[in-house]
Amino acid sequence: MKKTIVITGGAGFIGSHVVRRFVNKYPEYHIINLDALTYAGNLENLRDIEGAENYEFLKADITNIADVEALFKSRNIHSVIHLAAESHVDRSISNPIDFVMTNVVGTVVLMNAYKAYGDTQNGRFYHVSTDEVYGTLGDEGKFTETTPYSPNSPYSASKASSDHFVRAYHETFKLPVVISNCSNNYGSHQFPEKLIPLMIHNIKNEKALPVYGKGENIRDWLWVEDHASAIDAVFHQGRNGETYNIGGNNEWKNIDLVHKLCEIMDSKLGKAAGESAKLITYVTDRAGHDFRYAIDASKIEAELGWKPSVNFAEGFEKTIDWYLSNDEWLSNVTSGNYQSYYENLYSKR
Ligand code: NAD
Ligand code: DAU
Asked: Could you list the active site residues?
């Protein structure tokens, strides 16, 4: 009998990499991808595995108690890997309530259903979270699992809140849970509202490259496949009630990253050196913009033997190549609503 695992948010960026990994690597699991297909969810991300015998897609909203309960009542759900979320900081500034609904309420709805009907004796509820719950760093130091929570954006406040609910369900109801907090991911299939695919898209279309503030903020970038392998390790070997930080040990100042991208794109697009960098435009900073994120991943490395598999130069080039050779994917996701989103956020900066 296969173990049935619900992966939420499997049509999104990271979720699609996790679903693909689990479907291909674990034929002994039956994977249900539960996703509401918001603007960020795209079944095109999973075309290659949609016919797999151990895979099933269910369109459902995690805030819909009746739909979520119906699933957990009717199927013997071994475990949940929960990635569904509103994930973009800028959208959380213009519309915080969606983040409370999906990230906080949705997480509690899922845990209630798993607690009532799931296989809590043998399985677990895994909450995939972010390093942004820790707030911001100065020039020195890194986030560890004991860094106090200090979220600064509505997005990170909603993720911090859901982390607290997950921990509280472990303490109060003995729900078997595990949490991981990861740094910025990059890779294929990322919606072009996020820095790297947005800049690639704009360079291709010779549009301005909007760098927030002075471009001095720092992020710790991890290849999405390495996040998926960390999720695999935490899901299978992590200890219940524990948190694991995941990061790439790969800090970049935004402006340096954008310059690197311009340099590679110039060469790939056959442009003169320095051509794409002329598009860089400094725009009004993001409100409450966290200065620096950096992860100390020594716990997951020592306890679970995880480490990133690719260096940044290799992962970054693979990523750029993917966007350049998937023009149709990029055009599809940037048509329609994306245009008005972009106009609203960037035209007045
Ligand atoms: P994403 O925005 O690309 O995808 C989110 C997915 O969730 C989409 O498929 C969307 O349709 C689905 N979804 C949204 N609301 C839903 C709802 N109410 N019901 C059901 N499905 C819903 O996000 P991502 O970047 O892939 O992030 C996935 C998870 O990983 C999130 O929980 C995020 O907080 C976390 N995370 C992301 C990063 C990163 O760099 N992107 C880093 C660390 C942690
Ligand atoms: O750290 C993990 C988090 O990383 C995840 O939890 C979030 O879901 C994910 O969106 C990401 O958050 P960031 O806000 O760091 O990512 P974003 O790609 O939006 O921005 C990266 C940096 O680039 C940040 O300092 C803001 C800056 N930026 C972003 C955009 C979209 C710009 O300068 N210009 C832009 O147009």
From this structure: 131-132, 155
